[in-house]
């Protein structure tokens, strides 16, 4: 594995100076390579800095230290190479479904003919299951449908990176499940590189290739990177039948319930921020696969040995 990562988070920190008080360090020394086509989820308690990391990846916020390299270039601001799906969809209320998606397509390819723009927009509206609703306005749509438009809009610009901040958290369980299926199918079919924040352990297990666990803030750090031991061809309904499922789920829940706090309060002795421990929970005794090496290639290279 010598492939260069598409995204390389290199020692980023975010600090908020407060006049007359101590500067708050939300997180520091965060390192994370993400391969092309990989689906990475980040999990951690409220306030540990997940949205801040996502905003930095989007170019909407700048790190106080370190940098993020995408495809060989340091991020210096927002770009249409990186599409964001927020928790609330932020659609233009006066535009139709088609108008909202076409607006994004046009900003990506301003010289394209109107027909080609609409064709691209329709393709993605179809893909998220909204064919037939092109002429509706956001006020006429359910929450799940609005979120679908947000997903269609993000994907329609064919971004190098898809960034999602708890995109399904406001939806009912049924709609959430359907949208998770759709996003997973689209990401697999198109080889979409994705970084997603979630609070939902099962969502991470279903969608992610790797799950990044953050300790509690302030001063949060990547405690561990969990490799998903389930086969890539997995389905949401029989996830729990897989022999490794409960080991993985328990590992993630144990982390959220206790270790995210105890790890923060412990001195980080021997913790190498460039090479956080990589763990692959399984029905057999737990495997810690970290070895010193190139952070960019470590997780997969190590995983392949097992
Ligand atoms: N402008 C600001 N000034 C000071 N502190 C800030 C500012 N913006 C964010 N913070 C702090 O940064 C921390 C991280 O915020 P962030 O929104 O990234 O957390 P999060 O992990 O996404 O939480 P949640 O799970 O609740 O969405 C929080 O403690 C927040 O109070
Ligand atoms: Mg957040």
UniProtKB/TrEMBL annotation:
Signal peptide location: none
Compartments (UniProt record): Cell membrane
Chain ranges of the ABC transporter domain: 7-241
Keyword Ribosomal protein: no
UniProt-listed Pfam families: ABC_tran
Keyword annotations from UniProtKB, A to Z: ATP-binding, Cell membrane, Membrane, Nucleotide-binding, Transport
Keyword Membrane found: yes
Topology within the bilayer: Peripheral membrane protein
Main location: membrane
Superkingdom in the source lineage: Bacteria
Gene Ontology MF term list: ATP binding
PANTHER family: NITRATE ABC TRANSPORTER ATP-BINDING PROTEIN, TAURINE IMPORT ATP-BINDING PROTEIN-RELATED
Similarity section: Belongs to the ABC transporter superfamily.
Protein name: ABC transporter ATP-binding protein
Source species: Azospirillum oleiclasticum
């Amino acid at each position: 594995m010598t492939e260069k990562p598409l995204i390389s988070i290199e020692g980023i920190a975010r600090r908020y100076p407060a006049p007359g008080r101590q500067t708050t360090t939300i997180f520091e020394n965060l390192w994370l390579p993400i391969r092309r086509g990989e689906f990475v989820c980040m999990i951690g308690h409220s306030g540990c800095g997940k949205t801040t990391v996502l905003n930095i990846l989007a170019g909407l916020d700048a790190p106080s230290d370190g940098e993020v390299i995408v495809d060989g270039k340091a991020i210096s601001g927002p770009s249409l190479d990186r599409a964001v799906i927020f928790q609330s969809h932020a659609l233009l209320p006066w535009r139709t479904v088609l108008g909202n998606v076409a607006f994004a397509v046009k900003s990506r390819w301003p010289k394209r003919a109107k027909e080609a723009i609409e064709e691209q927009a329709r393709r993605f509206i179809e893909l998220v299951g909204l064919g037939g609703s092109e002429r509706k306005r956001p006020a006429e749509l359910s929450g799940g449908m609005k979120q679908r438009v947000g997903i269609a809009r993000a994907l329609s610009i064919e971004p190098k990176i898809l960034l999602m901040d708890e995109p399904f958290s406001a939806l009912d369980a049924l709609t959430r499940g359907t949208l998770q299926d759709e996003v997973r199918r689209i990401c697999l079919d198109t080889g979409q590189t994705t970084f997603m924040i979630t609070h939902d352990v099962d969502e991470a297990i279903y969608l992610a290739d790797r799950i990044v666990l953050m300790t509690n803030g302030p001063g949060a750090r990547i405690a561990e990177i969990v490799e998903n031991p389930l086969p890539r061809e997995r389905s949401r309904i029989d996830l729990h039948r897989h022999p490794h499922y409960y080991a993985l789920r328990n590992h993630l829940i144990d982390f959220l319930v206790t270790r995210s706090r105890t790890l923060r309060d412990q001195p980080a002795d021997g913790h190498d921020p460039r090479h956080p421990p990589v763990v692959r929970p399984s029905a057999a005794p737990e495997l810690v696969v970290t070895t010193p090496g190139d952070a960019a290639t470590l997780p997969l290279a190590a995983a392949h040995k097992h």
